Amino acid sequence: MADQTLKTLHPWLQENDTKVSSGGTVKSYSHDLGKGPVLCVVHGWPQSAYMWRHVIPSWKDSISLFVVELPGYGFSSLPPANDKRTVGNLILEALQQVFPSRSVIWCGHDRGGRIGHRLIVDNDPKHNITSAILIDIVPTKAQWAAFANPLASVAYYHWPFLAIPNAPNLIESFAGGAAEFTRLNLSRAAGSNAAGVTKFRENLAVDHYAHQFSNPECVAGSCGDYAAGATVDVQEQERDIKEGRKVGCPLMVVYSAGNLGRMHDVERVWGEWVDGTAGKEVRFEGVGDGFGHYLPEECPEKIAGMVGEWIGKYGK
Question: How many CB atoms are closer than 10 A to CB 244?
């Protein structure tokens, strides 16, 4: 079924609908080992928590899990504002209700990685984020700068498009509506590895995401996310640069060599955003073999292993 969830695939998960201070609800799936850190797993666009279906079974006996549906993406309520700090605070507020007084390892793909980047630079003690895994991103400001390259701007056309005020209406008027628009964009970011594409499509994943984005609230919320990414999020990162704020916790950046790695020297770019004097580990893992942007779905064994190793080191 197109509307199946992580819970239907993995009945060992607990499903949570957590009321937060904005007045809305954050939906999540959790698994509690009873002690130790929590791995907060956050998806990106145009997806849902369903994207982690292949990898979370590998981690369930090693660390407690909090797999969240991004506010504004159809299953959680629209946030009061779409900037990464506001959304990240709502996610952690919900996490802390499900897992009181626990430390957090952030694991975010795409937009979920951008939220994580904002939070680990903020370094708010009440968040208690002890390390982070960011998958297939460079900092938002650096990504916008890359669009001076015409090929990059074409490949990432959805960034400026989704940020314009009338984007939701344009998406709804697309032939086939928002669902078909979602299918088109999912196909554009897939890798060239045939086995990876097949793995991505397992469990009717494309149908699931298309069904999710047939909800106008999901379209509006995700467009709001990109609008914030073109304005307040970049302004915040400009202030970070001016005031010398950088990532200071242990960080692993995982990226597709044929996707993000083709556009950026990922290690060099991130080197400008990480506090190298902090004595904290910074690890880069480039994934080749033609795997594309959706690494946790295209090559789940690789991602499960990399994150599992990180959990083994920082999840005690």
Answer: 7
